[in-house]
Design goal:
- This protein has two helices and five strands, in the order αβββαββ.
- The relative contact order is 0.19.
- Helices cover about 35% and strands about 25% of the residues.
- It has a domain of about 60 residues.
- Strand 4 and strand 5 form a beta hairpin.
- By secondary structure, it is α+β, with helices and mostly antiparallel strands.
């Protein structure tokens, strides 16, 4: 039995790994918004507040840490996140 993956399966697995890494990067660099503080948030669609490279919360993606911007850019292209806005500023919503 061969353990070599075919091109399509290998490509799909590579994208899955990249998605997981970008979600982990977002979780490490952004601040998870608790459900009781986020109208409309659900456990299936967590929200993340944005931080700068010093760890201070910021109001817009433009001001955010480069790692957050990179994760958002990748995950947005993959259809896995959306940028939302509330009274405190912009946030990233994960679209599980």
């Amino acid at each position: 039995m061969s353990t070599v993956m075919h091109d399509d399966a290998l490509c799909a697995r590579a994208f899955q790994i990249a998605d997981e890494c970008m979600i982990a990067q977002l979780e490490c660099h952004a601040v998870r918004i608790h459900l009781d503080n986020a109208a409309g948030a659900t456990p299936a669609r967590p929200r993340f507040g944005l931080c700068d490279d010093s760890g201070f919360e910021v109001e817009s993606l433009e001001q955010a840490d480069a790692a957050i911007k990179e994760a958002f850019s990748w995950l947005k292209q993959r259809g896995l996140v959306a940028l939302g806005k509330d009274a405190q500023g912009e946030f990233i919503e994960l679209m599980n």
